[in-house]
Design brief:
Elements lengths: L21 E4 L4 H12 L5 E4 L7 H7 L7 E4 L2 E4 L1 H11 L10 H27 L3 H21 L11 H19 L11 H10 L3 H6 L3 H11 L13
Parallel strand pairs: 1-2
Antiparallel strand pairs: 1-3, 3-4
Helix pairs in contact: 1-3, 1-6, 4-5, 4-6
Length: 241
Amino acid sequence: MPTEKAYCTGSEFPPLEPGVLRLYSMRLCPFAQRSRILLVHKKIPHETININLSKKPEWYLEKINQLGKVPAIQKDDRIVFDSAIVNDYIDVTYPGEKLTPDDPYQQAKDRMFMEKYSQVIVAFYKIFYTRGKLDAATDLLKSLDLVEKELKTRKTPFFGGQSMGMLDVLLFPHLERCGHLGKFADVLTLEQDRFPLLNEWLKTMMTVPAVRETSTPLDGFMSFLKTTGTGNVDYDYGLDD
């Protein structure tokens, strides 16, 4: 059985069992969480190999993804990487509830909103790596106004309608962490008056079993955030020796 601990430089490639779907992940990576949510939600059997993104295994760069990013999936000789592409592939390839809209125009609208949403991700990492500077927090809050506006336009509990859709899965990990950032940077607060729909959506998402199971605990996020500033990131937080 593969270990939950992150594989790093110098590690050996864990043997791949024929016919078994493998997810290459990192336990606290929001992009990898997108694929973890989907795999759990669709009840797709798989194994997970976690990667140390600071000291990547040579075999990961050589065999799986030369970009060195997660997530990636592998089944036999087929490899797919990039979270949105991985999720699209999983959704159309595996049985279970399909989360991508059937309507091509709705698909286009969701993708167009993802382009706008990229502002949230840029602003998120700005505050993450500057440790909560005021101007970074201002940029993030301004970008989150786009999310609030989109929820108001859609008038549904989920971005996908009455139930979770693919857009919800792609948005949740970073938005969950935006709430966590408020515990670290007191200049960032998802105030109820400013973000009533976003706050409600976050609560609604946590009613989905797959989201609860793969959610990022505050203590784990805080440990990861703090160790990123030390040059010795704790990828194995909470795991036994």
